[in-house]
Amino acid sequence: MNAPRRLAPLALGTAALFLLAGCSGGNSANTDDAEQSGGSLVIDTAFSIETTDPGHTYDPTGNMVAKALYETLVDFEGSDVTTPVPGLASWEQNDDATEFTFTLEDGRTFSDGSEITADDVVFSLQRIQGMVEAKPNFLLAGLTITKVDDSTVTIASETPLLQLPAILANPALGIVNADVVQENGGTTDGSDSAQGFLDGESAGSGPFVLDTLDLTSQVVLTKNPEYTGDEEPAYDRVVIRNVTESATQLINLQGGDTMVAMDLNGDQVEGLEDGFSVDSVPSGQTIFLLLNQSPDVAGDLANVDLSEAVRYALDYDALLELAGAGATQATGVIPTGFEGALEEGVTQDIDRAKEALEASGYDGQTLRLQFPNDYPVGGVEFTPLAERIQSQLAEIGLNVELAPAPFATELDAYVGGTEGFGLWFWGPDYADSANFLPFAPGLKVGLRAGWDAAANTEIADLAAAAASATDVDERTADFTAFAEAMQESGPFVPLIVPGRNIATADTVTGAVYNSVWDVDIAEITPAG
Amino acid sequence: MSAERGTGNRTDVLAAGWRTRLRWPRAWRSPLGILGAVIAVAWVLVAFTASWWVPFEPNAQVLPRLQEPGVDTLLGTDGTGRDIFSRLMTGATVTIPLALMLVVAAMVIGTVVGAVAGYFGRWIDETLMRITDLVMAFPTVILAMVVAASLGPSLFNAVIAAIVVSWPQYARVTRSLVLGLRGQNYVIAGRLLGRSPLKSLTVDILPNIVGPMLVLATLDIGAAILLLSGLSFLGLGAQPPTAEWGSMISSAIQNFDAWWLGVFPGLAILTVVAAFNFLGDALRDILDPTAEVARENQADRTSSATGAAA
């Protein structure tokens, strides 16, 4: 008589437990579908996306989605961003590298079945040129885009622009269906209002079409039935979810909720057991130290000897420890994987550092190292990095005091060039080494270090030569010379190129990091 | 029967009178009070001696990163290879003396303001108390954040911010006590003897408000430690690489999977705050004569009741 009465609450509790367990499945995005043929793919990433209109996008997640929805004239293969390959078009350039002629591939269609013509290309690019406020607008500044015939377009610039193909590979310059977009408010004169339409559906030729977009929770893509390219997607449906905490991404991946986790840090991927694979590659970002060369800011210590002392005092292997898997030492201001990057980075040389410190006139002052403390780059937190730099510099007798601040606060001081000693990062806007020329004296980043053009005319000339080169090999040599000169006598100390870790369950394969669009979703296929 | 019980009670009362003089007060002997006192004394000892005996320099990055708690490193290592145990103990030397200092400062400021307001009354009272209300109108942590942020992030400025937000409660309590005491006959008598207001306050009134103030201050040490750690957690207090409990927890977020980074500083804060609260509670019981008598009476009643039952 007694036993059943005692069992009843137990049974009730068990039932409640099961119910709870059932509820916890609520955050998984239809994992059942994955079992069916075609199935769906779930990707976790911390969202940085504002729109799915390629003309307005310029964020990592935005680029990844645009890459899936739209195609560009030029493409890259896998994670190699040094060699542009034909996308929608193949191209030829004139000898001055000022005019490029693009010939569209035959038989390519948009998702509504209509053919891609030169008119679509011209409209897509001119639409962005017209929208002065649009983020990718600067990519096409000063270019003249002309239709030659139905399958040929020329793009001309006034100065040599060898990096044009690399620029055109940016997903923001994806080709949209001119007729459809024009019907929905698209224009080339700047009064464009098609963004609202393009946030609801896509009008491109990419392997996927947009199903739904929710900027805070998830983007759902479905397979483009009219796709005519060579990257036929293996999944019918792709769900890209906004998971801001990397620890949550890890739990989702381990629990089988998700197949691809985009933002795991080095320590997290090292802890992944069997059944998962990780693609760790250096990203395009460079974390560096800057030492201000303006006497107004740095006083007596405004000289490059001090930066040499810092450069040779650091133990780069110990710094790399903090960055985790995939990260590499920055060999110069141009990161590995880009044209003209140096092969070897600096190795620690305490004697040389001490000599340089002597030459710099350092006299026991305390340098304030300013850095953003809430903005990890590629999973690398700046505070531990700064702490380690501080302790390493103490070994040559250089006193450093740490002055962390939120990114938004510290940015003004950095951009305004008022930081004496700063820890910052720089990433390319598009995949070309020309993006690293701003480190030169008198240019954007150089000026942030108080380094004006007169400070080192030699390096300024090297940068100018690289910018106006018309031959690829010549330009590579110019970039190398520039990078070497910067390491020899620049005010910057390149530290780390953080890694990007794309972790996947073993059920999928092909998730490869690309510095322009993170991951080409169409390349992801079921394993085996 | 009844006569027996009567004599028994009388001897009990006599014995009780001796006992309170010879032994610790009963409230002191409450388990929580003892526990609080032991933990608090231990932490204070750590705070003043830690730098002599910790196994590693708190900022030395000489160990492997993210090592789990074990034999070599008692509480594991953090993301840059520093020994958590050494940092935790050194953290006490930062937090506890500063917390004590700030509580003393807040108590002095608050008591002076409250005593002046309560003693002189009228417009002085109005002005001082409205200023007190003004400060109390803002949520403590938010106001402290505003002050610390506007002074610039550093441990010293965090202490100033904490003083700014914590003096009003002392002012209020002092004022109400002084208001009550001001009308007492002995105070009035003192004034009629020609004592200046200053002398009247210090000689006649101050000894009578010291007790409640001490209780309030002891209870407030816990809150002060929480506030300082909170400000450091938000990046407005201790700056890296200083070992401080709040900033240790804050940096533990970066390595979410390494539980030992955040748990131990958290436990340190928990134990020290709880200890000072217990201590404050016990102190209140001791210094409040009515509570002591009530406790004694109750204890006597229970003992005699059990005695009668036996």
From TrEMBL, chain A:
Pfam families on file: SBP_bac_5
GO CC annotations on file: ATP-binding cassette (ABC) transporter complex; cell envelope; periplasmic space
Residue stretches making up the Solute-binding protein family domain: 84-438
Extent of the signal sequence: 1-29
Keyword annotations of the record: Signal, Transport
Highest taxon above the source species: Bacteria
Localization per record: Cell envelope
UniProt cross-references to PROSITE patterns, sorted A to Z: PROKAR_LIPOPROTEIN
GO MF assignments: peptide transmembrane transporter activity
GO biological process entries: peptide transport
Family annotation (PANTHER family): PERIPLASMIC BINDING COMPONENT OF ABC TRANSPORTER, PERIPLASMIC OLIGOPEPTIDE-BINDING PROTEIN-RELATED
Family as reported in the entry's similarity comment: Belongs to the bacterial solute-binding protein 5 family.
Name of the molecule in the record: ABC transporter substrate-binding protein
Species for this entry: Labedella phragmitis
Classification lineage: Bacteria, Bacillati, Actinomycetota, Actinomycetes, Micrococcales
Automatic annotation (TrEMBL), chain B:
GO biological process: transmembrane transport
Classification via Pfam families: BPD_transp_1
The UniProt record lists the keyword Transmembrane helix: yes
One GO CC annotation: plasma membrane
Entry-linked PROSITE patterns: ABC_TM1 (PS50928)
Claim: Transport is one of the keywords in the record: yes
SUPFAM superfamilies per UniProt: MetI-like (SSF161098)
Residue span, ABC transmembrane type-1 domain: 92-280
Bilayer disposition of the protein: Multi-pass membrane protein
Key words, A-Z: Cell membrane, Membrane, Transmembrane, Transmembrane helix, Transport
UniProt superkingdom: Bacteria
Cell location: Cell membrane
Transmembrane segments: 32-54, 96-120, 141-167, 214-238, 258-279
Family: Belongs to the binding-protein-dependent transport system permease family.
Protein name: ABC transporter permease
Taxon lineage: Bacteria, Bacillati, Actinomycetota, Actinomycetes, Micrococcales
